[in-house]
Design a protein that fits this description.
The protein is of the alpha/beta class. The chain has 11 helices and 14 strands. The structure holds 3-isopropylmalic acid (IPM) and magnesium ion.
Length: about 375
């Protein structure tokens, strides 16, 4: 958080990581919108672009070049678009993969808390795959642990190991480990409870405690933390049930806190409540520089065609203005402008419905700026 007084003129340095696919297109819209917001305030945004993911592999052989990490650490905030694509897909363990860039930068910056707000825009009710009556009152925050669990536990692929039954059938074996330490659970639980205090004061802690040891530790620690938040209601929910409840009655959720992989899966599911993965923003926070990114991927199938939805990226900018810069006024303005554009009937193709005016990526950015 910035300690600067809100009215002091200041320069804020943003490290841009456009990445792959539609990444550069939606990044351009974010830059345009930030420049426009800067003109309307006492803040100047400066941009420093760096390589991540497939683009970085092509240029340097590594998905996370040291220069990129350097630029990210020096910035006041990092804005990442999307990484990956079929060009770099491989199952060969020794080949670099774009996702290593994303996971590497999350880990290196210590971004253990990933916040994914799921909010329904009234004009988009028809774009959801659920009937509108199920969406009334939906306003949830997914708090996903981001630097532990299966994503970072011990893993290996081994050759010629006899199978568990000892029958000597040789073959490949692979494993990933779900591994959590108490402090990792405790700090993410605090993020969730603190967030709940500013919202509807309810936390669903999602685990698989009927099967997994990590989940039983998770539950214990979350309950211990909950004791410090007597005003917040805590509900334990098993992850398979959560997947069902998200569709059955999504309005029951306020804050949902969960481990890395469960959070990855449930946040994609929850995004469809909003009508499109193209509407889901995220903030990844730790103790230093924070990173903001849409929750969607690089959509290589539509890259370069000018039709990608830039709104999750712009909503990520809104989160950045709020969480990293304390510019709540500018954040509110941006959020309202996005809502206004939707109310006026404009849609990119992914959220278009009957009677909407279909626009491209650049036009969508322009429409938002007009309404700032
Ligand atoms: C996300 C993405 C990433 C993840 C992938 C691209 C590695 O799905 O941010 O949700 O699994 O964390
Ligand atoms: Mg995901």
């Amino acid at each position: 958080m910035s300690a600067l007084a809100p009215l002091e003129p200041r320069t804020l340095r943003i490290c841009l990581l456009p990445g792959d696919g539609i990444g550069p297109e939606i990044t351009a819209e974010a830059v345009k919108v930030l420049a426009a917001l800067g003109e309307r305030s006492h803040v100047t945004f400066t941009f420093d672009e760096a390589l991540l993911g497939g683009a970085a592999i092509d240029a340097t052989g590594s998905a996370l070049p040291v220069e990129t990490l350097d630029a990210a650490e020096k910035a006041d905030a990092v804005l990442l678009a999307a990484i990956g694509g079929p060009k770099w897909d491989t199952t060969e363990p020794d080949k670099p993969r774009p996702e290593q860039g994303l996971l590497g930068i999350r880990k290196a910056l210590g971004l253990y808390a990933n916040l994914r707000p799921v909010r329904i825009f009234a004009p988009l009710l028809d774009a959801s795959s659920l009937k509108p009556e199920y969406l009334t009152g939906v306003d949830m925050l997914i708090v996903r642990e981001l630097t532990g669990g299966l994503y970072f536990g011990a893993r290996a692929r081994e050759r010629d190991v006899p199978d568990a039954a000892g029958e000597g059938r040789p073959g490949m074996r692979a494993y990933d480990t779900m591994d959590y330490r108490e402090y990792e659970i405790e700090r993410i639980a605090r993020v969730a409870f603190d967030a709940a205090l500013t919202r509807r004061k309810r936390v669903h802690s999602v685990d698989k405690a009927n099967v997994l040891e990590t989940s039983r530790l998770w539950r214990e620690v979350v309950h211990r933390v909950a004791a410090d938040y007597p005003d917040v209601e805590l509900i334990d929910q098993l992850v398979d049930n959560s997947a069902m409840q998200l569709i059955r009655e999504p309005a029951q959720f306020d804050v949902m806190v969960t481990e890395n992989m469960f959070g990855d899966i449930l946040s994609d599911e929850a995004s469809m409540l909003t009508g499109s993965l193209g509407m889901l923003a995220s903030a990844s926070l730790g103790d230093g520089t924070a990173l903001y990114e849409p929750s969607h991927g690089s959509a290589p199938d539509i890259a370069g065609r000018g039709i990608a939805n830039p709104l999750a990226m712009l909503l990520s900018v809104e989160l950045m203005l709020r969480h990293s810069f304390g510019l709540d006024g500018a954040a509110d303005k941006l959020g309202a402008a996005i809502e206004r554009v939707l109310l006026d009937g404009y849609r990119t193709r992914d959220i278009a419905g009957d009677g909407s005016i279909v626009v491209g990526t650049v036009e969508m950015g322009d429409l938002v700026i007009e309404r700032l």
